[in-house]
Design goal:
Length: 104
């Protein structure tokens, strides 16, 4: 039983590493887009307006990353519970079969 729990945890840790790596790549891409967007806006409006818009975009981006983290954690918690339940049902079935064999 413990070995299976450890395997689930390893799977989750690996998936989390992939999730973090992807988030990092998206963040780098976003920073480049912010620079380009800022340059474009500077031609159209004043410094203060540009700064405000860029800050709003950055905050929206951070919120979306936090939302992705939450979704990731909820998905893996649900997946872990389902796998643990299946494992428990399998063990219960094995114990029933064993008891049946011992009775005979």
């Amino acid at each position: 039983k413990d070995n299976n729990v450890q395997l689930f945890n390893l799977d989750q840790k690996q998936a989390w590493k992939e999730h973090e790596k992807k988030k990092h790549e998206v963040s780098l891409q976003f920073k480049k887009q912010q620079v380009e967007y800022g340059k474009k806006l500077k031609k159209e409006m004043g410094f203060k307006e540009v700064k405000t818009l860029l800050l709003k975009r950055k905050n929206d981006f951070k919120v979306s990353l936090a939302e992705k983290d939450r979704e990731f954690k909820e998905y893996h918690a649900r997946k872990f519970k389902e796998e643990a339940q299946m494992l428990k049902e399998h063990q219960d079935q094995e114990q029933l079969e064993l008891a049946e064999q011992q009775r005979q």
